[in-house]
Amino acid sequence: MAKTEILSKIGVGSGLDTTALIEALVEADTVASKENLDNLEERSKNQISAFSVLKSNLQDFKDIINQIQSQQQYGFVGESSDATVATLTASGSKAGAQINSSLTVSTLASSHSLTGPSYSSATATVGARTLTINFGTWSADPTAGGGQSFTSNGQDQIQVSASSSTTLVELRDLINTAVTDSDNDGQKDINASLIYDGTNYMLMLKSQSGANYEMKVSDSAGSPTYAYDATDGAQLTQRVAGINSAFTVDGISMTRPSNSVDDLFDGFTLDLKKTSGTAVRVSSKVDLTSVSTLVEGYVSTYNEVMQSLGAMGANDQVDPENDGALIGDSTLREVMRELREMSSTGITGYEGGPYYLSFLGVSTQRDGSLSFDPKKLETQFKSKPETVRAFFTNNYATSNSNITIKAFDFVNTKPGSYAFATNGSTHTIGGVSATKSGDVYSVASGNPNGLKIEVKNGSGVTSGTIFYGKSFLTLLNDKLDTYLKFNSIIDTRMNNLNDTLRTVSEKRVALEGRIQKLTERYALQYSSMESTVAQFQETGNMLTAMLESKKD
User: Which of 92, 240, 471, 500 has the fewest CB atoms within 10 Å of its CB?
Assistant: First the structure.
């Protein structure tokens, strides 16, 4: 060690290592505060990391739930001996395993299609005119001479007005903007498009499929080039007539406006692909293999997530160093409790419900984990097939085909079965007063808040039941979203912990200031002591020298 370093540490008078002594005193005075800050910082960082893992686990769980939910299964499958002619697909929990029918397809349904007139450019102007489109059935294709009859189907008419500067493209867009789904079947009443035949452009109008959805077009212009009616004649050209599908099932002749038939077999959709001269066989059977795989996947994922969360709150009584980062944390306990409670939550809003996860063969073990028994699933399914739907699929249904659900609020409308009743002047849905506007009844309070239903005009229906159910997977998703959404309780905890880290940083700065002041104070005190000791030594040395001189 250099001489100057030694001299800087050893007191001039006392010979003590005052620098080390001061450091020791300051350390003794501040060590507890340092340790507290170090522990608080480490604990906060560990908890932030644990909450990040917690949120990641919940997001992974949600992603897997969405994958399972997208693979909706009903426990039944449909089969066809010739899928090029027709297919049979399970589409709901009411599917039955008793279907075994002979099918012959005579005619496929088609949409009424009209085209014209022709233009050399898509931006050519069409002239000022008002087009009015009605829907129904023609007795025959109207000609320029007229004379054919048209019977309206009651759908809302469409009316658009073009100016002298409106182009063919703009006319197409005007029609598509004005189009609605007036019969609430999920399809727009018509579709307008432009086609190019290699030389000219022309407008094409195509209605829904079926003989009852043909179009009558009236044109107000002096030259009604867009007319298709009995008065102004067929200025537009009919390319395809509106035709119903025609088929025979077990010797019974039937027709439908579409090639997709969902009202023939409960819970199944029959899709007609092409006509057939010979019969094909369509049938159904119980098939729980896919359902079992998906339920087993849910159980496995749930157990993995809960095991991970449990490790975060673990208490190692032998070695506290192995305790989980979130031991005793209330947020972790809440998340785990909510997920456990989902396993015993009743799923309402389904006919014959409520249903429970246990109906699928899922049970809770003593350690809180879930187990799955495919045999119990099969037994329960045969007596309560609706259970499978309640696990996978939301439910919007009514007990009467003349009652349809028009709207609901996914947040405010609570899942449940709601009785509808009216005596003409007083109306209730689920026991809550409802308001009537035309054929629509709506509720603005209580559990059915936001629910709107329509009762078919003239049906005479005065009562019925509305079923609005959220599936188990949807309910679980909603639960997970409360913890994954922005500013959730987990985000709040992490923000508070980050605030704690900032406080630790501020307290470290304050502690450094305190250490510096303590060091300066002790240095001043020991400097004063050393000065006093040095004076005593100097006096002693002087006295010693005087005494020694007298001896001499």
Answer: 240
pLDDT in tens, 261-284: 999 998 899 999 999 989 999 999
Q: How far apart are CA 471 and CA 390, in angstroms?
A: 5
User: Is residue 187 domain-shared with residue 234, that is, in the same domain?
Assistant: yes
Same domain assignment for residues 425 and 402: yes
Is position 485 within any domain?
Answer: no
**129 and 116 assigned to the same domain:** yes
Q: Which residue has the tokens 């006096």?
A: 539
Specify whether the CB–CB gap between 407 and 453 falls below 8 A.
Answer: no
318 contact partners, CB below 8 Å, separation of at least 6: none
Domain match, 81 and 23 both: no
Name the pTM for this structure.
0.68
Q: What mean pLDDT value characterizes the chain?
A: 88
pLDDT digits (tens, 9 = 90+) for 408-447: 998 899 999 999 999 989 999 999 999 999 999 999 999 9
What pLDDT was estimated at residue 166?
Answer: 97
- The structure tokens 């099969």 sit at 378
Q: Name beta bridge partners: 233.
A: 229
One domain for residues 410 and 457: yes
Provide the number of structural domains found in the chain.
5
Q: Which residues of the chain have pLDDT under 50?
A: 1-11
Tell me the residue range of the domain where 440 lies: 395-469
Q: Which residues pair with 246 in a beta bridge?
A: 107, 255
Q: Report the chain's terminal Cα–Cα distance, integer Å.
A: 42
Asked whether residue 62 is assigned to any structural domain, the reply reads: no
Report cis status (omega within 30 of 0) of the bond before 257: no
Q: What are phi and psi of 403, to 5 degrees?
A: -110, 125
